[in-house]
Structure of Amino acid ABC transporter ATP-binding protein:
Amino acid sequence: MIEINDVNKWYGDFQVLTACNTRISKGDVVVVCGPSGSGKSTLIKCVNGLEPFQKGDIHVDGTSVGHPKTDLPKLRSRVGMVFQHFELFPHLSITDNLTVAQIKVLGRSKEEARKKGLAYLDRVGLSQHAHKYPAELSGGQQQRVAIARALCMDPIAMLFDEPTSALDPEMINEVLDVMVGLAKEGMTMMVVTHEMGFAKQVANRVIFMDAGQIVEDCSKDDFFGSPRSERAQQFLSKIL
Ligand code: ADP
Ligand code: MG
């Protein structure tokens, strides 16, 4: 589903990603962790073409992200992305947030988009808030809407970049619960997170990054049981 082949990226002289390789199959739930500044956000932004890379390639469902002729907006519409800061459109109602891309990008009718949007809103437990505006919802609720909005596009995979790290502690679980549900239904997911409870519960693989490199790429049990690298051992001893 997602193939990352020898991806290297520089910001000027600074090499932010070095020879990154991994394969993510359909239904995989891969947690990406590692110290701040290790390149986690950059790597997942490369996957849906939000950041260019200079060497190597990434294929998403057979489409080359690096090829100059690839229709990146089309690719992005098929790979859902949820960021740390819930980026809902502040001037649109929750319903309109859920429908606008379905109508504009996928060409769905207003009614069809609305039906789908409300179904996903219900799924994240927020159907009673359809008429409200983002500012009227809590951070956890906004993040659940952001997930519902991504799901409305029928994504083939979902990318999450620290979706709970900007939330107050009491709101973290309501967002993680939605993600756990998705994982259990078989959604292919790449999740940058420090929530090791989530990793232990639903991940089947863990990628550990340090200084722009994928240092560990192994099963969850191997990662938590016996990480091979000293850097991962140190990271785990601080975080657990
Ligand atoms: P992480 O998500 O693991 O914290 P990032 O992918 O955000 O790490 O960043 C990796 C490195 O790249 C950091 O050293 C960061 O300072 C640097 N970086 C990120 N974005 C830019 C940019 N636009 N220009 C220059 N350096 C950047
Ligand atoms: Mg980051």
Summary: The mean pLDDT is 95. The pocket of magnesium ion (ligand 2) is lined by residues 40-41, 161-162 (CB under 6 Å). The beta strands are 2-11, 14-24, 29-33, 55-60, 63-64, 79-82, 157-161, 189-192, 205-210, 213-219.
